[in-house]
């Protein structure tokens, strides 16, 4: 959770590593031996949009994963251009796409 001036302004929810992640993303060429963690949700308060809260949350997650030789993977709906731009700026790359319940999903990883 990101806190600014004592108030929560962002939160990231992670899916813990496990075989289910490797299975879910098997079609995208992910290293089956890596310790994958999925970003399930990343929330930021619109009031602080553009102030680096999302990048700070992702940076913290990536630091924690690096300490444990973990890797990051996520899906983002194609229409969520602000989120996609954030992930690209933070060094994630597109590894695939699939049709989901809410439209086209883009799979990204570090």
What does this structure look like?
The protein has 110 residues and is α+β, with helices and mostly antiparallel strands. The protein contains three helices and six strands. It has helices spanning 19-24, 53-67, 81-89, and strands at 2-4, 7-15, 35-44, 70-77, 93-100, 103-109. Strands 1-2-3-4-6-5 form a six-stranded mixed beta sheet, covered by helices on one side. The model has no long low-confidence stretch (mean pLDDT 89).
CA(first)-CA(last) distance: 21 Å
Task: Give me the oligomer status.
Answer: single chain
Fraction of residues in β-strands: 35-45%
Provide the succession of SSEs. Answer: EEHEHEHEE
Ranges with pLDDT <50 over ≥5 residues? none
* Structure summary, number of beta strands: 6
Strand order of the largest sheet: 1-2-3-4-6-5
Q: How many DSSP helices?
A: 3
Calculate the mean pLDDT score and round it: 89
Biggest sheet details: 6 strands, mixed
The chain-level structural class is alpha+beta
Q: Please bin the fraction of helical residues.
A: 25-40%
Shape: globular
Radius of gyration over C-alpha positions, nearest whole angstrom: 14 Å
